[in-house]
Amino acid sequence: MASRTLLAGLMLCSFWALARADDNTTKKPVSTLYSDKLDTTFSINLPENSGDVNFFLSSPLFSWFGVGFSSTMAGSPMLLFYASADGKAVTVSPRYATGETEPAYNSTMRVAVAASTVNNGTFAVTGTCSGCRQWSSNSTTQPFILAWGADADFLSTNDLAARVKQHSGYGHFVMDVKQATGPGGTAMLLALDATKNSDGAHLDGDLQADTGNHGGLAHGVVMALATLVVAPIDVLTAGALRRWPVLNIITSTVMMAFLLAGMGLGIQMSRLYIATQQYRTAHQILGLLAIVALFLVAVLGVVYRLIVKSATKRGQQPPEKSGLLGKVHRWVGRAVWVIMLVNNGLGLQFAEASSTLIIGYAVLAAGVLILVGLIRWSIYCCTRHSREELEEDKAGIELAQLYAPSHHMGHGAGH
Ligand code: HEM
Ligand SMILES: *[C@@H]1O[C@H](CO)[C@@H](O)[C@H](O)[C@H]1NC(C)=O
Ligand SMILES: *[C@@H]1O[C@H](CO)[C@@H](O)[C@H](O)[C@H]1NC(C)=O
Ligand SMILES: *[C@@H]1O[C@H](CO)[C@@H](O)[C@H](O)[C@H]1NC(C)=O
Ligand SMILES: *[C@@H]1O[C@H](CO)[C@@H](O)[C@H](O)[C@H]1NC(C)=O
């Protein structure tokens, strides 16, 4: 009986010893999230009675990596990590997002980097953020967010306010901030062994690949189609096939639809980024002005056509000044087309497209412009003789002959 008690006591003791040894190693005030999908480790340590967050991040190189100290983008203090200008260290930029838009650099949060390296396509950084901590609980499931930029176009700058493009993916996670609270600081984080295990943290739901970041591409493609394919067809149907004005009405309407869709996508994109939210870039201003001008040009074409039609109906020559109207309509329409071709280039430049793409586009645009110019000019020359009789048909033939259903309107005006 006594020996049994002794044995049980011994076992209990050794169990306690084991448990305490175990305790000793896990009791460090750190919570760590490891994502195998991203091969990313994020650890925090929280000094008591302080608004500081000591952090450690190790991650493969993305164009940027972000951690937000809240459950949603909106209202979240964030840290964005990207390679420094020399590519050898990590820039840590404290930011604040007011919605699902590019977070702005926010100097009310201060970051001190204790150590950072970029090595063999991986970065590791340890530091302290003052002011990143907004929560005031000891929750074991405090919500956080993470997001990563593209696995290409790597940012490499010391600029804390550098432009970043929308994420390629994002996720939500929770951390045990109670476990992470205690002394140690960055020195302790630096001394941690590399780990591929979460401890006091886990992903909340799956990581989401972001499909919302193709708006810029769609905007560019739609605008390129509108100006390089639809507009030339429109100019040529107006010039060459003026006997079938319906065809030109269709191409004009299609073009306007393309331009409006492209503009819609552009406006949606503009909302997302700090640089574009104020509509102050040359690309945005020119683009909007061009579309407004095109509408005015279309109206001008319709008015001109109505004047000519009603004059013909009465068996009179159109008033002399209406010719000017037609000229303005034609030449402004052409000018707007050229401005749009140039503006596409500005857009590519603004989107930081590769110079190969920009030069390729410039060559293509110039080629289309010259080709259309030549074809249009030869049409002009071939129809020189019969132009007088066809004067009326020349009205509103240009680029923006939108909603100028020539025949119906002509008749309508005649009644
Ligand atoms: C230029 C920068 C950014 C833009 C334009 C942007 C935009 C957006 C948009 C439009 C959404 C809606 C969902 C979608 O379209 O896929 C979204 C969701 C989300 N973003 Fe961002 N984001 C940016 C940066 C960040 C950063 C730095 C983080 C994290 C540190 C982040 C974390 C999230 C999360 C977690 C969601 C899911 C919805 C939520 O919880 O709010 N984003 N973002
Ligand atoms: C427990 O931790 C202390 C300091 O953190 C260390 O000196 C000691 O050796 C550890 N004990 C064990 C059993 O690991
Ligand atoms: C800066 O961040 C703090 C939170 O850390 C936020 O309360 C404040 O509104 C932000 N300022 C701006 C201008 O966004
Ligand atoms: C560099 O990275 C590659 C692939 O990620 C890995 O195979 C290699 O061992 C790494 N080299 C060093 C020195 O860490
Ligand atoms: C969280 O826990 C720490 C120590 O465990 C304590 O000092 C602090 O007051 C607690 N904070 C809250 C908001 O409960």
Automatic annotation (TrEMBL):
CDD domains: CDH_like_cytochrome, Cyt_b561_FRRS1_like. Keywords: Membrane, Signal, Transmembrane, Transmembrane helix. Residues 1-21 form the signal peptide. Residues 64-149 form the DOMON domain. SUPFAM superfamilies: CBD9-like. The keyword Transmembrane applies. It comes from the Eukaryota. The chain crosses the membrane at residues 217-239, 246-265, 285-307, 331-351, 357-377. This is CBD9-like protein. It comes from Coniochaeta ligniaria NRRL 30616.
